[in-house]
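User:
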Amino acid sequence: MENKYKIRATSDTDAWGYAVCFGTAITFIAGIGHVNSFGLIYKDFIVDTNSTAKSLTTAHGVFAIMLAVGGLLLSMLSKRYSLRLGGFIGATLFTMGSFFTIFISNTNQLILTFGVLQGIGFGMMVPVCYLSINYYFVRKRTFVMSAIKAVQGIIVMWYPQFIKVITSCYGFRGTLLILTGISLHMFPGALTMQLEKRTAKTKRIATDDIEKRTNSDQHVDLLLNTDNVEDIKPRCNLADKMILLGSEVLELLNLKVLKDLVYCNICLGQSFVNFSDLTFFILQPMLLFQYGFDKSQVATCISIGAGADVAGRFGLALISGLYPVNTRFLYYIATFFTLLVRIAILHAQQYIWIVGITGVLGILRACLHVASPLVISNHVSHEDFPGAYALFMLTAGVINVMLAPFIGSLKDLYADYVPSFYALVFCCIPCLVLWPLEYIFIK
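Assistant: Predicted structure:
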């Protein structure tokens, strides 16, 4: 990243940082607020088109890896252009994908509209938001992230009820059209992503610096004669150009963080858990429909889970505002209890128990979502965070693409969602095993 993004905030007093918080909240609400309600939106469409569960999970797997592609595209653009421009491009791609989804005829086409276009678009927006927050906040970073997620959760809590109403009133296509309109709110979110305000004075200073460097280069050129230039040209052969290109690629991907085995362990563990979390809540409505609950009961259960998520985020914001929180330890503990509670939900089919367990999962999910980006940002330097987070998204995307079709195939093979959910439970194991091993070896 350029030097203007390497300046780390030393205090949490810049008022524009709170505008960035607002922009981040509406970006995530407009982008993925409806993801937990996928079962409500596409249930009848899947039945009418005889689509498979594999196609739905594959689309989400492609979405995950396209998040990484979007992050890498943003890294390339940020070398020459502002983060705000990258955010606008991401918002445009996401909105296009949302609009084209209106015209799909089966869930296989979601791989292009939702998976590719919306994945790349949102993948460009995520690091823009997180980098902007990291730029403006240091001491209150956990508190601010918790508050953003809490505000996001308040809106998302009502999404299932909202989806239930609009699908009844406007049908499948009308619902997708309304969601396209909601996705347009990503543009004002991108508008807030400004890391610094260049005054006329700073512009003049920058212009003077450029002129000085230009004059200096011209003086150097005058000192070089033709023979010296001819001696230099052969040195710029193909091998040298390839080395330079390789250096630029390594700098873009920031692969040097892979030398840090602790980062690699963090990245791998979180990738499996995040895949498990995302796929679990996408398929949960399908599981509840299989249990025999109606659409109203399913929507209520999802809303209660989202409400518990909100409560967890507010509680975490309050606690982190009073006491320092070890985000990695928080993430690990939340993962451990998530595994236990998910096993419990597969053995309790009474509605009251399902609602209670979903509420507990919502609280645990709040801990996972708030801690996830902070675990990485607290381990790597501010300068390395964009590349490190892009590599994390790439790892998570690869794991999604590899495992998502398998999860869907289990349902299609057994005609039952329960085996798929057991597979998702076991996806928590790599984090729970590898992280303690790292601690043992280091200590």
